[in-house]
Amino acid sequence: MQRRSLHVSNEILIPEIAELINQGHTVTLPLRGYSMRPWLEDGRDKALLAPAPETLNIGDVVLAEISKARYALHRIVEISDRGITLCGDGNMTPEHIRRSDVIAIATGFYRKGSSTLSPVKGNKAYTIYWKTWIALKPLRRYLLFIYRMCR
Known about the structure:
With 151 residues, the chain is of the alpha+beta class. The protein contains three helices and eight strands, in the order H-E-E-E-E-E-E-E-E-H-H. Strands 1, 2, 3, 4, 5, 6, 7 and 8 form an eight-stranded antiparallel sheet that branches. 21% of the residues are buried.
């Protein structure tokens, strides 16, 4: 049996996901785009999204509305009185949002085609990855270039 897929624009899909999240559900979101490389890949990986806790932390990956009807699943790299700064692992340019723009938090990922959830909380390898990746921001452009060349 051949599997069929349906592609729905984010302008339609994300508000529906937000509604489910607001009702307390979790949602598995197939990921599109390259902004979270090298950790997450377009069309291969999925994120398990849940309602965001009251307190967010640097390193959390959140689904947020970064501008009118434009959404991203990116990592929190800074939190201040002015708001939250996000940046995709594969991006160089950050986005600045308010706490109210956060729709959900990623509690785990299905990576590399696996059907097994790799949770975020308590995952030492994941914590080492994101802390190292944030620290390597000055070298990120070069590391991503090497990553793309090796693929």
